[in-house]
Amino acid sequence: MSALNIENLQNTFQNAVNLGGSPGAVSTSPTQSFMNTLPRRLSTSKQQKILKPFSTGDMKILLLENVNQTAIEIFNKQGYQVEFLKGSLPEEELIEKIKDVHAIGIRSKTKLTAKVLEHAKNLVCIGCFCIGTNQVDLNFAAKKGIAVFNSPFSNSRSVAELVIAEIISLARQLGDRSIELHTGTWNKVSNKCWEVRGKTLGIIGYGHIGSQLSVLAEAMGLHVIYYDIVTIMALGTAKQVSTLDELLNNSDFVSLHVPETPETKNLLSAPQFAAMKDGAYMINASRGTVVDIPSLIAAMKAKKIAGAAIDVYPAEPRKNGVGAFADDLNKWTSDLISLPNLILTPHIGGSTEEAQSAIGIEVSTALSNYINEGNSVGSVNFPEVSLKALNYDQENTVRVLYIHQNIPGVLRTVNNILSNHNIDKQFSDSHGDVAYLMADISSVDQSDIKEIYEKLNQTDAKISIRLLY
Ligand SMILES: NC(=O)C1=CN([C@@H]2O[C@H](COP(=O)(O)OP(=O)(O)OC[C@H]3O[C@@H](n4cnc5c(N)ncnc54)[C@H](O)[C@@H]3O)[C@@H](O)[C@H]2O)C=CC1
Ligand SMILES: O=C(O)CCC(=O)C(=O)O
């Protein structure tokens, strides 16, 4: 579906006729009932027209990694074919599956590399049902005309709450006491167990999660300092520090909330652990590449670091199971798990019912809006373009979605092609090498549509085209 398939034009014409000619019938369609539940981006008093120039039953959505039920329900209401798998897939299987799907939903484990995306002949869009998008080759996807969406903050609170729990758990050695008692050992101690009140929390990365954590931590009596590459307004009485070292020198707890980027790889390694206070604690619920684990192991063995909580790992198992977290995944695993006062969790920072349900709705709605209307607002790799929904008074109107290389002269060429019709609205934007033009053209006969498509398809700058009507 990266471009309207000419062979399917017959079907699509029929579909358009059905929709345009019989609004009453449309009001009983699943799509309409779904649309009615959505907060509309651009309100209109007229009944909104459903734009779907394809048979919705042919729309294939592949959902991996146990994406929430809310997303499945929304896609089912659209009439799409949904395939749902609990785990992620190894590369070869992923390549096979991605060949004929129009949209794919993933979480943090599925790697959508250029090699995988190269085989995605029909893919229109990708939904990351999470915050991080580092698992997708965003530039390659954009160059193929594939828009990527995520959920920028629906699980932020869940991560912040987990970190709060870990701060107290580490300070009181709760993990160790619990493991001991599970195996019959009564070990009532107070040595090196602390209140968190009055201690300093250093937050690295003061974005959605870091700033939520800041507010919660202050409510418990912690002092908060933070380090970020950009200047960010402090919440409460938190203070931004100007260097990473300043944060490390002064924090009793250090918590990481940065994205995975080349700059954040091994952000905490041997020199940074050496710069931390003796007996400090470290928490990483960001990405596994951000902390050099062998250096952490050395710092904990030397008692420089009194405890740590880790939620994310350089390599993570593809699915749940006994024996999945072992040395063949990360070679230091045995060494790591033998350490005291170390809380290990299986990447569950965002895994709450509230977060997953909200993410399911948010991302499936964004994908549906993009598929059905071309609205790319919220995409992380694509020009953000949107036009007001069409209504039933706008007969013979076609929405042109033209994704193209961002080079001079393209708009002139496209507007020449569209010039026999009235261009009611047009919105174009670019993002790096890729540009996206959305235009509503009126006075279009059914017989014109194929010609418009074919002319646009012959333009040199074209990446992909869809015509909605
Ligand atoms: N454990 C889990 O389940 C989850 C993990 N995450 C991870 O947490 C990360 C952060 O999430 P948000 O707070 O929503 O992201 P955000 O984008 O709102 O904030 C990230 C902050 O890090 C800062 N930053 C970037 N590079 C930096 C550097 N080199 N040094 C210092 N600061 C730097 C940015 O300026 C920004 O303020 C995500 O990228 C994701 O990888 C997110 C959700 C769940
Ligand atoms: O819930 C997940 O699978 C991933 C959570 C996460 O790391 C994210 O949202 O970036």
UniProtKB/TrEMBL annotation:
Keyword entries, A-Z = Amino-acid biosynthesis, NAD, Oxidoreductase, Phosphoprotein, Serine biosynthesis
Q: Which InterPro entries match?
A: ACT-like_dom_sf, ACT_dom, D-iso_2-hydroxyacid_DH_PdxB, D-isomer_2_OHA_DH_cat_dom, D-isomer_DH_CS, D-isomer_DH_CS1, D-isomer_DH_NAD-bd, NAD(P)-bd_dom_sf
Q: Which CDD domains match?
A: ACT_3PGDH, PGDH_3
Task: Say which family it is in.
Answer: Belongs to the D-isomer specific 2-hydroxyacid dehydrogenase family.
Give the pathway listed in the UniProt entry for this protein: Amino-acid biosynthesis; L-serine biosynthesis; L-serine from 3-phospho-D-glycerate: step 1/3
Pfam families in the cross-refs = 2-Hacid_dh (PF00389), 2-Hacid_dh_C (PF02826)
Record NCBIfam families = PRK11790.1
Q: Name one GO biological process term.
A: L-serine biosynthetic process
Q: Which PANTHER family match?
A: D-ISOMER SPECIFIC 2-HYDROXYACID DEHYDROGENASE CATALYTIC DOMAIN-CONTAINING PROTEIN-RELATED (PTHR43761:SF1), D-ISOMER SPECIFIC 2-HYDROXYACID DEHYDROGENASE FAMILY PROTEIN (AFU_ORTHOLOGUE AFUA_1G13630) (PTHR43761)
Under Enzyme Commission nomenclature, its number is 1.1.1.399, 1.1.1.95
Q: What is this protein called?
A: 2-oxoglutarate reductase
SUPFAM superfamilies recorded for this chain? ACT-like, Formate/glycerate dehydrogenase catalytic domain-like, NAD(P)-binding Rossmann-fold domains
The function of this protein is: Catalyzes the reversible oxidation of 3-phospho-D-glycerate to 3-phosphonooxypyruvate, the first step of the phosphorylated L-serine biosynthesis pathway. Also catalyzes the reversible oxidation of 2-hydroxyglutarate to 2-oxoglutarate.
GO MF, one term, reads:
phosphoglycerate dehydrogenase activity
Q: Which residues form the ACT domain?
A: 399-469
Q: Which reaction does it catalyse?
A: (2R)-3-phosphoglycerate + NAD(+) = 3-phosphooxypyruvate + NADH + H(+); (R)-2-hydroxyglutarate + NAD(+) = 2-oxoglutarate + NADH + H(+)
